[in-house]
Amino acid sequence: MDIRELDRRALATLGAVIAQIGPDQLRLPTPCADWTLHGLLRHQVSENLGFAAAAAGVTGDIRAWDQGNLGGDPYQAYLDSADAMTKAFAEDVLDHSLQIREFGFFPGRVALGMHVLDCVVHGWDVAQTIGVAYDPGADLVRYSLKVAALIPTGAPSDDRPRTAFAPAVEISAGSPALERLLGLVGRPAAS
After folding, report:
1. How many domains does the chain have?
2. Which of 70, 75, 77, 131 has the greatest CB tally within 10 Å of its CB?
3. How do residues 141-172 score in pLDDT, each as one tens digit?
4. What are phi and psi of 26, to 5 degrees?
């Protein structure tokens, strides 16, 4: 499995949902606590640029993860950031140690897996917000589910001042894979 291809597909899937956003929808609340759709899109653009910066060797500068600017065309801002992300990981960085936010250093391959998860989950967030269908594909969901299972859940603590996602919610083990994934990242699938 080529993790870079999975990431490109996750970016494209999220992009297809973002393309459906109308300008009057940017102030809508999302399943991400405290974020409007505008805030979520800005976050995703920032994440894409932050991962690209990490792949380029930027360390110790948390501001690299907060550079997203939607300007007058949020969809184009997303496309540009996705392109920067894809180009950064086209280089041979999968085995390099990359600093991901304040979470620490991870091999590039692991970092890219985290990015796939982020795209798949936030694609669902956007789709829920604007009321459109969302089907990222079974392989992206399965992969994201494996990554999500490795991420610590629960509230922040002294040794973990920030969590990547909301605390997990209980989802039946017999539920579809996407619902189980959403539960691991703190989203009740029926929202």
Report:
1. 1
2. 77
3. 999 999 988 876 655 444 443 455 777 778 88
4. -65, -20
